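Predict structure. Chain length: 303.
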Amino acid sequence: MRGAIEAAKQLMRDVLSEATGLWVSLRWQFLRGRQGKPSGLGHPLVLSLTSYPPRFPTLAMTLKSLLMQSMRPDHVELWVAEKDLDVLPKAVLDLRAHGLSIRTCKDTRSYKKIIPALAAHPDAAIVTADDDAYYWPTWLEQLVDAYDPSVWEVLCHRGHRITLRGDGMPAPYRTWEFDTADASSSLSTFPTGLGGVFYRPGILPAQVMREDLFRLYCPTGDDIWLYWMAALNGARFRKVGPVRRFVLWRGGQEVALYNQNVVGEDGNDIQIAAMLGAYGFPPVSAGEEETAGSSPRVAAYPD
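Prediction complete.
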């Protein structure tokens, strides 16, 4: 019985994926070339993502949904490993005529979506997106509109609420409150890359670029690494808007890191434990809570 229910759910997801893909294609015929309104941030706004060959067949649909946003970023950048550039499909290459920049970088897996963008645009706000999902037309505008320059926080459309053990340390990942509706600004909200994440200029410390460390502690857990780095730099985290169910393209999840990090060998817990061992869990005392999120703080990092 359970197998039949899961099969029915998968069929519904596949139908929704196909219908959404058709919708993107139809909108693209009418809206390609039209630009959304400027962000008005006063500093560059960069929309950055990465991909790799197993996801290339559906990548153009994600990119089209990002290029049809109601708000126009200064740059829409797709970062791919140098070895993958020659196998990008024509449907993706053609989008360069409509505002897409395709850039190559070292293959650091999912970290390609942000690490090279941070190096290329140190003074920009960077919004990351995943390569296997549909993003509705006001997705970017909602993140930008929620940004308050006076508050030191990371913004996201989707996040989990971290469950704590009795000693104040994070409980196993599977026990967290997935897709939380909590919209408070706190350390308890854990942004997930699928929903898109807004990083204001400077909120990620220079340490975030240390490839030797993120490969050591979080080789497949970029969300974990980015959360810890921002938190250690004094950031808080806030979810924007209502809880949404994201449309994922058919076949994309067969190669998702989710299968390794959550479904498989409890990869997230292993990487979270590594970060706890290296950096601890960022403490917030009652006095600190009153000013948390107002400015960066200097954190101590291991060599």
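Summary: The CA atoms of residues 70 and 117 lie 22 Å apart.
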